[in-house]
Amino acid sequence: MTDATTEMAPYAFVRRETLEQQPAPLSVAGPLAWVRQHLLSSPLNIALTLVCVYLVVDSVPGLVRFYFLDAIWTGTSRDACLADKVGRPVGACWAYIADRFQYFIYGSYPIPQRWRVNIVFVMFALGVVWLLWTSAPKKKLGIFFFFVLLPISAYVLLLGGPGAERFLGFCLMVTLALAALYVVLSFAPQLVRFNIGDAGLAVVQQLPVWKRFFGPKQLVLFALAIFVFLSLLASSPGLPRVDTGLWGGMTVTFLIAAVGIVFSLPLGVVLALGRRSRLPIIQLLSVIFIEFVRGVPLITVLFMANTMLPLFVPQEYSPDRLLRPLVGVALFAAAYMAEVVRGGLQAMPKGQYEGAMSLGLGYWSMMRLIILPQALRIVIPGIVNTFIGLFKDTTLVTIVGIFDFLRTIEATLVDPTWATPTTRATGYAFAAVFYFLCCWGMSRYSIAVEKRLAAGQKR
Amino acid sequence: MKQIIGAALIAVTAAICASGALAQSTTLAQVKNRGILLCGSGTGLAGFGIPDQQGNWAGMDVDVCRAVASAIFNDPNKVKFIPLSAKDRFTSLQSGEVDLLSRTTTWTISRDTSLGLNFAGVNYYDGQGFMVRKKLGVDSVLKLAGASICTQQGTTTELNLADYFRANKIKYEVVAFASNQETVKAYEAGRCDAFTTDASGLYAERLTLSNPDDHMVLPEIISKEPLGPVVRHGDDVWLDIVKWSLFAMVNAEELGVTKANADEMLKSENPEIKRLVGTEGKFGEPMGLTNDWALRIIKHVGNYGESFERNVGSGSLLKIARGQNALWTKGGLQYAPPIR
Amino acid sequence: MSTTSAEIKPGKASLLYDPKIRGYVYQFALLAVVGFLIWSAASNAIENLRAQKIASGFGFWHNAAGFDINQKLIPFSASGSTYGQAFWVGLLNTLLVASIGIVLATFLGFFVGVARLSSNWIVSKLAMIYVEVIRNLPLLLQLFFWYNAVLKPLPNPRQSIELPAGFLLNNRGLYVPDPQFGPGGNLIIWALLIGLVATFVFRSWARKQQAATGKQYPIGLVALGLIIVLPLLVYFATGRPITFVYPELAGFNLRGGIQIFPEFVALLVGLTTYTAGFIAEVVRAGILAVSKGQTEAANALGLRAGPTLKLVVIPQAMRVIIPPLTSNYLNLTKNSSLAVAIGYPDLVQVFTGTVLNQTGQAVEVVAITMAVYLTISLVTSFFMNIYNKRMALVER
User: Fold this and answer.
1) C-alpha A377, offset from chain centre
2) A120 and A184 in a common domain
3) Which of A25, A69, B272, C166 could be A65's S-S partner, Cβ–Cβ 3.0 to 4.6 Å?
């Protein structure tokens, strides 16, 4: 009926074809709308936008001109960066950075020996990537490498000298002995029945010889390889002793950061476990240590390490000048790490503990096999954040006279060879870029891990 | 896991043991055994002790260590220089970390008597002075009323400054920094009108300013700062060696024996020179040295005057006049007991 | 856990495996180790101190200091003052910079935190850049930057920058006119105090009235009258007793006025901007933690953006914000110890720097310093806990 009437109606207008899609009105879509919505939505916002635009326009071109357009990139002395010598306005003096770059990396480390630092750098980078890259293979090996082999290698390579070589020889002997032990055990696993039990023995015996005790064997072989490599270096190019007084620059910055992480993480785990322990004295001691360290500034801890540590040990064992702040930083970071780890332990659902206990696991097995792997995984962002703090705090060793990266910058600022009006701005900018890249990179990593963990939790 | 813990424990123990050194009988025996002299030096002060780009140390204080090494080993390079901050220097010497401290250290009664140390002489007579900008138009410390003065904290300098201005009833404002570098930087940046430290340090630091000619050192010296090498209490032979190494250099200058003519002087007929270069008498043996000990010092390091001119005097950038450090025969204070 | 296992009463295990016994053994062993470490450290320290002939004990506290300090809140001079007084000077300087820094950092941090969530794109981006840059650079580097950025470009005292109201700025610091109170000047202070108290009383009364009757009172106007107009009236009534001593050039420095030292300014600016970066993140997280429904409900009630934030979102966010805010306040206080790097005479610079060097008594000096910071930390967290409890009580 209706159809008919419609068709009959003489003046009725019925569209017979679909209209072409129109773009959205300018006021709700497109760049103009975006600008309106995000920059000019209210009088206050307009004012704010104007202020911000003014700030940006006022500062950015000046900075770009100073650091790039007017900058001096090459030169060998301050003459290259003096406006009246160059004959034009001079910006940042990057030539100074280029000239002193080696110093910023190695400090006063003897030039012919710097390859040793480079090897340590490479090993450190390898260890970091191994640990942080989540899909890297053989994580356990990586942990062993980072927390045991790397410190030993760094000690031997960086310090050198007869003491370090003796120590290397000792490590080599221990590793060889362990390797021999495992060779014997692979053929005769019965020898360790008392340790692994009958069931374990049965499992082991089923495997082919080379796969028995594969985990520990792997570690020993890896350690052996590293130590042999170091011994070869020690024997052919030689590793003369380089005193810690000569170390400096980024080497020391990374060293402090690495020592901080390598020692603070295990120590922090122990302290966190101690704080959550049911044994009152252990808990009390852990709480006292953690709260004490967290309640005082790092500087006072460093002062303590620097002035009091030598008093606390017999005079003939007076600790090395660089060792003192290292101890201070490691203890300081451990207290903060302990709180992060404690957060992870507390976040573990109770069922995990109960499940582990119902399996008959003892305290240490429960922690090692069930709780810690999960707890540490969820606090990776926290650990990385603590580490960022630690990395920034390494600059404080400047105050107790250690030549870290920032100190090398400061030291070159008073050097008349490069004393120009813009040297200071350049030096600080370079330091800022270095620290920013390191810290920002780490925080990006932590955010990425956080996201991945969150994705895992979503289900 | 257990192996890891074990290895880590061993690593820590070994690291601790390796860094320790065992105490031995006499300092000289220790040094000879070691084959190298451990010398506590400053952290870098031009003219007194500073490493160059290649890490070779040079300076007045360094020369004292080189002289001792020459006397013992006949080789001025058998010295290892250990940079020590003002704060750490005495502890390091007391703990045996260094055999000898030669680091612009002022000889005072409290240091000599209560710290368990002995001063072995004076290799530089210094005093605390002031540096100002020339354009300030000031020619005396007494005209610094109301000025800001930069100084390094925790030093005798800071105390002398307070004493002097209090005694002269001048108002001033002190700005104290933890390190010398910071202090100089602040002065250069214009934070202070004046910068105070030992006069020798002023000349050295002046060189590190971007325009040394814009600055001048005021004539007043407000304190006595005799600087000299220091050794531990309790080893008199070692004290003798350091003391007489220094005296040998001064005597050599007095007798006109130089690095260049040392070998010719072996043929000298002058009995004093003969005793100095060891052709007459046996003066080295009682100290456990050879009798040509002084000759070795002169050949390798030179006499006191040469060391002075090379490091801080006309042969250097510092251009400090001999002044009080001239020989006693020339109106100065440098005087060495005779070798006989 | 132990109680449940006790209830089940398993067969008596061997002593070796009894968790209780084991616990005792572990604890005893740990105590023994810690005790031994402390004992050996102490005996070594005594031995070493004797060998180095360093005095021990706190006798130095009353010895004459003999050095000067430029910024002092209490009288201090090289001639008459003791190390103990130097300690107080340093401590007060620390507290001064920390308390001002905390106030400023809170304002700046809230501002930046809110700005990061602004709908205005450029505002939120700038806030983000600020936070990222500040948080990812070491504080020490920032202090060096501020000290040299504050210090270097400023002219020397002879060419001071003249600011309005007789303020002068040069590389020796900021000079502020020094108010001198003539006779009757105290009345003005009293008037101001009375005004403040009265405002506070009126405000709480008005709030109660509003809650009871819904009637609103002009709090802002009354406060203005009480705090500003009242003292002004007294000022004119007593015959304008306040005069200002303006800084002027004398010799090569300025004389008169109150001098605010560049070290203080640099440290304050550095600490404020640094901590504000962290507070901004805390605030942002706190605001995001308030569910969106709250904002929408407020909007539905017709509240504008400002009141929504002030009356609905922030009060709820505060519960999330306060604990991390406390730790940021503590961090700021602890970080003020970096003053030592730029020569501001705070506790660490004066006491752990100069006094330690002059006396050589490292153990005592460092222990006192640590005890002070520990006390500050504990006291601050105590008060913040009280405040936190009060905030939490607001909840149903």
Assistant:
1) 16
2) yes
3) A69
Nearest residue of chain C to residue B157 (CA atoms): C67
Lowest mean pLDDT among A175-179, B101-105, C337-341, C361-365: C361-365
C1 touches chain A (CB under 8 A): yes
Determine the pLDDT at residue A338.
Answer: 94
The answer to whether A384 and A444 have CB atoms below 8 angstroms apart is no
Q: What is the DSSP string of A234-248?
A: HHTT------GGGB-
How far apart, in whole angstroms, are the C-alpha atoms of residue A251 and residue A246?
11
Inter-residue contact A403 to A62 (CB < 8 Å): no
Does B319 fall in a domain?
yes
Quote the tokens at residue C277.
């970066």
User: Looking at the 3D structure of chain B, how many domains does it have?
Assistant: 2
Q: Which residues of A402-414 are buried (b: 16+ CB within 10 A; e: fewer)?
A: bbbbbbbbbbbbb
Note whether residue A319 is domain-resident: no
Q: Each residue of A55-79: pLDDT tens digit?
A: 999 889 989 998 988 888 888 887 8
Contact (CB, 8 A) for C26 and A279? yes
* pLDDT tens profile B181-218: 788 888 888 888 999 998 888 888 888 887 888 999 99
Mean pLDDT for chain A? Answer: 86
Distance (Å, whole) CA A115 – CA B257: 46
Average pLDDT over residues B228-236: 91
Q: B18 CA to chain A: closest CA distance, Å?
A: 5
Distance from CA of B282 to the nearest CA of A (A): 36
Residues C216-232: what's their mean pLDDT? 82
Judgement on whether residues B34 and B110 belong to the same structural domain of the protein: yes
Q: What's the pLDDT tens digit per position in A257-309?
A: 999 988 999 999 999 999 988 889 999 999 999 999 999 999 999 988 888 88
Determine, for residues A304 and C338 on separate chains, whether the beta-carbon distance falls below 8 Å: no
pLDDT at residue A261, rounded to an integer: 87
For A86-90, what is the mean pLDDT? 83
Confidence band (pLDDT; 50, 70, 90) for B237? very high
As a three-state string, the secondary structure of C173-217 is EEEECEEEECCCHHHHHHHHHHHHHHHHHHHHHHHHHHHHHCCCC
Domain containing residue A46: 30-69
Distance (Å, rounded) from C-alpha B183 to C-alpha B187? 6
Same domain for B208 and B323, yes or no, is no
The per-residue pLDDT for range C122-145, each reduced to its tens digit, is 999 999 999 999 999 999 999 999
What are the DSSP E strand ranges found in chain B?
37-41, 50-51, 57-58, 79-83, 100-101, 117-119, 124-126, 128-133, 147-152, 172-177, 194-198, 215-217, 225-227, 230-232
Q: Which of B18, B19, B85 sits opposite A401 (nearest CB)?
A: B85
Q: What is the CATH number of the domain that holds B172?
A: 3.40.190.10
Q: With 0.80 as the threshold, say if the pTM is over it.
A: yes
Q: Enumerate neighbours of B (3 or more CB pairs within 8 A).
A: A, C
Structural tokens at position C59: 């006798």
Q: Which residue among A20, A42, A69 closes a domain?
A: A69
CA C160 to chain centre: 30
CA distance to B245, B265, B266, per residue, from B276 (Å): 11, 10, 10
Q: Which residue range forms the structural domain that includes residue B219?
A: 128-223
> Does a structural domain hold residue A13?
no
Distance CA B232, CA B120 (A): 10
Both A157 and A58 in one domain: the answer is no
Do both B176 and B250 map to the same domain?
Answer: no
Are both B137 and B189 inside the same structural domain?
Answer: yes
- Helices then strands, counting H and E runs in chain B, come out as 13, 14
Shared domain check, B278 and B205 = no
Q: Do A308 and C370 touch (CB under 8 A)?
A: no
Question: How far is it, in rounded angstroms, from Cα B79 to Cα B70?
Answer: 9
Residue C11 pLDDT > 80, yes or no? no
